[in-house]
Specification:
By secondary structure, the chain is an alpha+beta fold. The chain has helices at 10-21, 29-48, 53-63, 82-95, 114-123, 128-148, 159-173, 178-189, 210-227, 242-246, 274-287, 304-310, 322-325, 329-339, 349-352, 355-361, 370-373, 411-422, 428-439, 448-452, and strands at 71-72, 79-80, 102-103, 107-108, 295-302, 364-368, 382-388, 393-398. It is built from 20 helices and 8 strands. α6 packs antiparallel against α7 (159-173). The radius of gyration is 22 Å and the shape is globular. 54% of the residues are buried.
């Protein structure tokens, strides 16, 4: 084996230098607080999806493997390897599409990385400060990549930035030196490019698993590097590297932590539809129709990415899967108008074929408004106009949906989300105890104290 230090390409060198500068003691109290809010939100998103079929399958897979350094699968009594815990917990986090979001030139869900980082913190008996530090670092890499590089337009999917951010956070928790951290980054990126096909057409269960798989791969890459495995040294800039595959892009690393710029969700709907669905719920109250038969047409207008993701494919008017339905503006708006709310139960199989939902969806037209596109990604605007058979119209436009960084959910709302979504697996006493620890995560001496509260026989 060659013991000479690797000569990394310029992008790897920049990432290593940036990572070296991220330290808990340099994080402001506001950033620490926002990180803890995201961790609470991540556990809530996961436990709420415990009974989803893909969650059940993922836990079954994790339960087959034991480890002498085990990590817990949340909501269960299962202990497994850290990489399989990262996958099973990550699948739960994404299953209901209610986890956090970042919007830039690309977009994605940075909390996909958190289950992997918690699993490694657990097996390393890291303290809460180390976990907060690793999560903040991972979010910086993920969000700055989204902000600068449009991989979606090139046919690549969001696991690309998941694997990069999580690998650096994982290396930090494993206490890898700069040399091994570079190899962790290279071993995460080289074999793990992901296709955007995962989010096209009628959506499969993999839509909610892709980020979890990237986190699993990042954890595995960091563990490989810890054992001494090496990766290519020009993984970004060299021949056959990332920039050659997706096109050269400038990637400025952030001047300040980016986790406060991410958006939480209060509706289990693709983020690009949040504003339109909130508008539909409010219009339902405003119009107070005797019968939805009085509606002649519903026009949903949004920015380009929203229309592309939620209204540009015929499957969005006939969703056959939960994954397609929560990415369908016609479906989510129809449910909002019929029920006055959109919840996890809104995507049960019976609702997908409910004649009332199907009929109302056919009245929905979706189009891009260039004026709304000009406001994205600074905002996530959506407008809904309802025209009645009488000719009367009502419309409402929302620019910053609840949970957007410019219209944030309060601490009380985040904690209520936690109580509501965890109630199926944790009793009230355990939920309260978990929140007490998560609120003061920076004082926790061993992260396994936290995960023990999510272990349920």
């Amino acid at each position: 084996m060659n013991n000479e230090p690797a000569r990394w390409d310029a992008t790897v060198e920049a990432l290593l230098a940036y990572a070296q500068g991220v330290r808990y003691d340099a994080l402001s109290p506001a950033v620490v607080h926002e990180t803890k809010r995201r961790v609470i939100d991540t556990f809530a998103s996961a436990l709420g999806a415990y009974a989803e079929p893909v969650s059940v399958m993922s836990r079954a897979l994790a339960a087959r493997t034991r480890s002498d350094q085990p990590a817990r699968v949340w909501g269960s009594g299962i202990v497994t390897t850290p990489e399989l815990a990262a996958f099973a917990n990550g699948v739960m986090v994404r299953s209901l599409d209610v986890s956090d979001t970042y919007l830039g030139r690309s977009r994605g869900h940075p909390s996909d990385m958190t289950p992997g980082l918690i699993a490694l913190a657990e097996v390393m008996h890291a303290d809460g400060k180390a976990l907060i530090e690793a999560i903040s670092l991972a979010y910086d890499i993920y969000c700055s990549f989204c902000q600068a590089v449009d991989v979606n337009a090139k046919g690549w999917d969001q696991p690309l930035y998941t694997v990069l951010g999580c690998a650096l956070g994982a290396a930090r928790l494993l206490r890898l030196d700069a040399e091994a951290t570079g190899h962790a980054l290279s071993l995460a990126l080289t074999p793990n490019m992901a296709l955007a096909q995962a989010r096209r057409g009628s959506l499969s269960s993999w839509k909610g698993c892709a980020g979890a798989n990237a986190t699993r791969n990042a954890v595995f890459a960091a563990l490989l590097a810890k054992e001494g495995f090496t990766g290519p040294t020009a993984v970004f800039d060299g021949s056959g590297g990332l920039w050659e595959a997706i096109g050269r892009s400038e990637w400025p690393l952030p001047a300040a932590p980016m986790i406060p710029l991410t958006h939480t969700k209060s509706l289990p709907v693709c983020y690009h539809g949040q504003s339109a669905v909130f508008a539909a719920i409010e219009l339902r109250e405003r119009i107070k129709l005797d019968a939805l038969d009085d509606i002649a047409e519903i026009h949903a207008e949004g920015y380009g990415a929203a229309v592309f993701m939620m209204g540009a494919d015929a499957s969005r008017w006939a969703p056959a899967t939960r994954e397609t339905a929560d990415h369908s503006l016609p479906y989510c708006i129809a449910i909002a108008l019929l029920d006055g709310a959109v919840t996890s139960a809104s995507f049960a199989a019976a609702r997908l074929h409910d004649p009332a939902v199907v009929a109302l969806m056919q009245k929905v037209k979706v189009s891009e408004d260039p004026a709304l596109s000009a406001r994205y990604p600074e905002g996530a605007p959506g407008r809904v106009t309802i025209r009645l058979k009488s000719g009367a119209t009502q419309w409402l436009e929302i620019r910053y949906p609840r949970g957007h960084e410019k219209n944030p959910m309060s601490d009380a709302e985040i904690e209520q989300k936690f109580h509501t979504m965890c109630a199926g697996r944790l009793d009230g006493e355990r939920r309260t105890a978990a929140l007490v620890l998560l609120r003061r995560l920076e004082t926790v001496g061993d992260v396994s104290e936290v995960t023990a509260l999510f272990a349920v026989a």
